Automatic annotation (TrEMBL):
UniProt similarity note: Belongs to the outer membrane OOP (TC 1.B.6) superfamily. OmpA family.
Protein name: Porin
Pfam families: OmpA, OmpA_membrane
Species this chain originates from: Shewanella glacialipiscicola
Gene3D superfamilies in alphabetical order: 2.40.160.20, OmpA-like domain
Compartment annotation: Cell outer membrane
Keywords, ordered alphabetically: Cell outer membrane, Ion transport, Membrane, Porin, Signal, Transmembrane, Transmembrane beta strand, Transport
Length: 368
């Protein structure tokens, strides 16, 4: 490797890091600037794997600037160590050094822990010394290589942080296709962020008048949007009465049928129309058409007949008067719910019927 070039790169980093404390001295708060150094091990892939070895010692120095609590940029100098191997009777001793520039993302966690991710490029110099037993030679290559990494860190103080780092370098190649390597780095880094955190000066609490609840509903007047709610009503967060929907069932009339018939007589269409109008005025209501039969004949037959009677009226409500099918149910009860007890002609006539039971919804205040 060119010694002058290495000294120039190192000098750039030293000059930058030496200027950072002066940037921080003008402020008493924690600044976005930080510096640090790292030490670890590096493994070159594709070389020194069969008949060689890695000198795995690696190190770096760096400086960075945080744009905010989560995002920053970092510049540094890194030495990835050496790899020794022999191929075709020629021994090789290669090392990689260079400057880096990258972006850093930071995710603070609880109890001073944090996660980080980084990506950037390394302008590297790859130097390889070769010896075939008679002649020794050295060549070098300069090029760019991408890298990315991740880490976990712990802040001992607001200024001092220790991180465990992993980095992956791609395409660390020379110009002669002798070295074509990637590498994996694992290490620890210690960084120092300049400045000091300053505790906010205590502020005297303003004198505030005691809150008032004029209607005693548990909500103070400055938030009460319903200032005169009854004392027995439960209220919401702004002092207004809480209501609940209460369902009630209402019998709105019945229709009679001829013996052994499920045909709706024309005289009852006006009653069905009135029911449809009532349902249209109250779109939240539902109705059950309950079919019944007189206690004449077999129970199973009467049950089926009561179903047919209920379905006949429900069909008229839906198909003639346009009430939604979802609001209408039909159910047969056979002879189980007689309107008039007994075995007389009048009792049988009264029990051959349907009844319309409407489920209504009313809003009522919730009481304490």
């Amino acid at each position: 490797m060119d010694l002058n070039k290495m000294m120039k790169n190192t000098l750039k980093i030293v000059l930058l890091t030496s200027m950072l404390p002066f940037a921080a001295s003008a402020s008493q708060e924690l600044t976005p600037w930080y510096v640090g150094a790292g030490l670890g091990v590096n493994n070159y892939e594709h070389v020194a794997t069969q008949n060689g070895s890695d000198d795995s010692f690696a190190w770096d120095i760096f400086a960075g600037y945080m744009f905010n609590d989560y995002f920053g940029a970092e510049i540094g100098f890194r030495d990835l160590g050496n790899a020794d191997w022999t191929a075709a009777g020629i021994s090789n001793d290669a090392d990689v050094k260079g400057t880096t520039l990258g972006l850093v993302g930071l995710w603070p966690l609880a109890n001073r822990w944090s996660l980080s991710a980084e990506a950037g490029a390394m302008y590297y110099t790859l130097e390889n010394s070769q010896n075939n037993g008679l002649i020794s030679s050295t060549y070098s290559t300069d090029d760019f290589a991408p890298y990315f990494g991740a880490g976990v860190g712990y802040n001992f103080t607001d200024n001092l942080k220790l991180q465990a780092k992993y980095r992956r370098y791609e395409n660390l190649n020379d110009d002669y296709n002798i070295v074509e390597a990637d590498s994996n780095y694992w290490g620890l880094e210690l960084s120092y962020r300049f400045g000091n955190t300053v505790a906010a000066a205590p502020v005297a609490a303003p004198v505030v008048a005691a809150p008032v609840d004029s209607d005693n509903d548990g909500v103070y007047d400055d938030k009460d949007q319903c200032p005169a709610t009854p004392a027995t009503h439960k209220v919401d967060s702004v002092g207004c009465t809480i209501y609940e929907n209460v369902k009630n069932k209402e019998d709105v009339g019945s229709i009679q049928f001829a013996n052994d018939s499920a045909v709706v007589k024309n005289v009852y269409y006006k009653d069905i129309e009135r029911l449809a109008n009532y349902m249209n005025k109250n779109p939240e209501f539902t109705v059950e058409i309950a079919g019944h039969a007189s206690n004449v004949g077999k129970p199973d037959y009467n049950m089926e007949l009561s179903h047919k009677r209920a379905n006949a009226v429900a069909d008229i409500l839906v198909n003639k008067y346009g009430i939604s099918q979802s609001r209408v149910t039909a159910k047969g009860y056979g002879v189980n719910q007689p309107l008039v007890a007994g075995d007389s002609k009048e009792a049988h006539a009264a029990n051959r019927r349907i009844e319309a039971i409407v489920t209504t919804t009313t809003k009522q205040p919730v009481l304490k």
